[in-house]
Amino acid sequence: MILRYATNLKLAKDLYAASKRKLTGNPYTKQLFTQDFKLSERAMKLAGVIEFIASGLFATSVLHKNISRLGSLVTFSVLSVAVYKRLEAGHGKVGAQHALDLLGLAALSLIDTFSKK
């Protein structure tokens, strides 16, 4: 249980940092979305909002395990698209590695909520 909380706080921190770059309009992130991923700036903001919501869910997941489950599902939705777009843009597994790592942590967190402890 303590491990899940530590994992969730790591996810919250990383997702918040990623959402901050998208919501503030970081020039590198904007270029990546518009040129490499061929997505609009509006899609970048939407991804940032979804990541921000997921980070908030993980940060408050100590209150109830259903919040952690919801955070994992929201994370799956946004990061699976991120991995797909990175692979489609030709960045390869190396470019998608951070998103894959976060997806793995979210999966572990989700699985841990189903334990009978």
Walk me through what this model shows:
By secondary structure, the protein is mostly helical. 82% of the residues lie in helices and 0% in strands. It contains five helices and no strands. Helix 1 runs antiparallel to helix 3 (41-59), helix 1 packs across helix 5 (92-112) and helix 3 runs antiparallel to helix 4 (65-88).
Notable features of this structure?
single chain; 117 residues; mainly alpha; 5 helices; elongated
Strands, count = 0
SSE series: HHHHH
Q: What number of structural domains do the residues give?
A: 1
Flag low-confidence runs. Answer: none
What can be said about the biggest beta sheet?
A: none
Outline, from the CA principal axes? elongated
| β-sheet strand percentage | under 5%
Helix content: over 70%
Quick check: average pLDDT? 94
For this structure, the quaternary state is single chain
Number of continuous helical runs: 5
Structural class: mainly alpha
How would you sum up this structure in a few lines?
The chain has 117 residues and is mainly alpha-helical. It has helices at 2-23, 27-36, 41-59, 65-88, 92-112.
